[in-house]
Amino acid sequence: MNTILNKIGAIRVTPARFFGFFLRSTTKARCGYWAILFTLVLALTSCSDDLDVQQSYPFTVEVMPYGDKITKGQTIELRFEIKPEGNYANTLYTIRYFQYDGEGTLKLVDGPVLVNNDRVLLESKTFRLNYTAQSSEAVKFGIWIEDNFGSTPWQQTFEFNSKDSGNDDGGKTPGIINPVNPGTITPIGL
Fold it and tell me: What percent of the chain is modeled with pLDDT above 90?
């Protein structure tokens, strides 16, 4: 250690010699001054070691067109596709429903029968539901799809008129779809 200090002492680096470079008014000195100042600012600014990974992405759900009339015992298939704006591998989606009017069952094709307000895990972003009417009344129910990050759930209300109700307009009125946040509903390829 003493030899290093002796060599430094032999060179005689004095404060005037060290800082004198910066005190000169040459262009080279000014560039050196700004380079060292930039390096100090860059070195002293705090950087976060945390990597920000976005996990929650907004999503919409596309619904295929479906019939609007239903009779007791008849089954209507509803097809859905979840369209997230981004892709995070660990995103899980759940579905739940609530029946406002009429009686019937809603079942995931190749899955369980849904119970009012019980969440069921969706195994795929593309899935089908079968609704079977158990009364001759008009039917109204809502479906909610949520992700595991608590973002705004997608919700839609489905209404079916009874074929037995006498309110037949020749099938010209489509099923009523009331989208609720977020966004638009577009059919999956016709």
Answer: 22
